[in-house]
G-D-S-L family lipolytic protein (Roseivirga misakiensis), 525 residues
Amino acid sequence: MKNLKIYLLALLAFAFVIQSCDEDVDLILQQEIENPLPGEVTGTPGSLDLSNYVSIGNSIAAGFQDGALYTDAQNQSFATFLGTQFQVTGVGGQAFNVPSINSVNGLSGANPAGGFFGRFELSLSQLRPVPTEGELFGAFDGDNSALNNFAVPGMKVTDISLPSLAGSNQLYGRFASSPGTSTVLGDALATDPTFFTYELGSNDVLGYATSGGANIADITDAVSFQTSLQTSLSALVASGAKGVVMNVPMMLTAPFFRAVPYNAVPLDAATAQALNAGFAGFNQALAGMVQATLITQADMDQRMVAYQAGANPILIFDESLEDLGPKFDLLGLPAAARAGLEPFRQSRPAVATDLPLLTAATEIGRDVTGTGTVLSGISLPIADNFILTQAEQVDVITARVTYNTIISNVIQAINAAEGSTVLAEYDINVQLADIAGLNTATATQLGLSAEAIAAADGTLGIIVDGVSLAPDFSPNGVFSTDGIHPNPRGHGIVANAMIQLMNDTFGSTIPLMNVLALRGIIATD
């Protein structure tokens, strides 16, 4: 009897389990009916043939991030993301091959202590980018003829048809079909592309900007820019391919130009007083020159150095200032006093309109002589290549506006000649105006398009699927740690904007990416 009771209790418990399971199954079935699982993701190409997509561009399209070209970054560029989305069922894309650098960290420069630096990571303890250990790269060991990404870091528009590029830029030389003879354009055309993206033009002014406006000759002239653009785009279209052309981004809103404030010299009262004592002779010399009508009061005011407790302006070299050397000579000072004025012939404290570069972060306060008394940007003017003055910013903005006008005009002319839309222009500044938090007035002053001005909502960051992403290289930012290039999330935003443009222009239904599923920057303790 006892065994029977145990048996019956076991059956009763089992019955409850079965009933419960049945109820769970019914509930699951009902939920599946009301909320069916998504089916296979599909798309259509519209009027495009995406069977052979080719990317032509510079460092952004190549996937250069964190100051280096490394394998993971190559696989997370907007071009690679587009290639992936084109392989969705129904869209018609094929495998997208990149000239793999075969390196975990890549190469960003030489390490003074020996060896090489690789990509940068964000140090959470130091709150700044720090380099990893890098390595030299070798020749591409894959099949050159099967490549899809022909983007080359450092390439200008005017380089696309230069056979010599393989010699001057090993990031092309390593995968060029015939180094010294072949060209990027020729190699790309040899693959018979059916669709292409074209991202060139930023390097035609970026080098000038990132060197602090050191050499105006670094900016490509408008005639050369237009000739190279017209020739290369016409050749690509003549091959039968359609394409999307990205214009030149407003680079001066990137963290490389915004992360370091103009008043990045924090001082306590005692240090400020000591520094002011050291500059007393310089300030007196300026006052004497005003009295002698050698300079104006306004010129004296912009050059005088007066430190105080708190945040102080960086002391900078400004090549646009009059060189006071000859006028210093007229003061009749003792040799030692005259020698003390020599470093300050064209110096002044920075103002809010100056843009210190990200590279200035490790230069400000550097002990120049090893004595602890000559500090870069504090007691000695920081070099010109660490600061972009307002006049130099105008050079950059003018070049960008000129280039983008040329890009728009060339695209319109080619489409008109073809009698249909074969080229679509992607205005990346629409996203950048939103991300940077520009207001309408500033966007207008920067010469942006009507669409970019409309996107300038005055709110810092961009909302992606309900999440605000920042215009910096923080863990929630869209830039990589070099302050210039996007991180994978930033590339995802660009890829989605291009896809939306393609869908709107060519009638395709290519699915968008999940940007938030992509990584941001790489951080370390």
The two ends are 69 Å apart (CA to CA). The longest strand covers residues 116-123. The first helix runs from residue 2 to 34. Residues 265-351+355-388 form one domain.
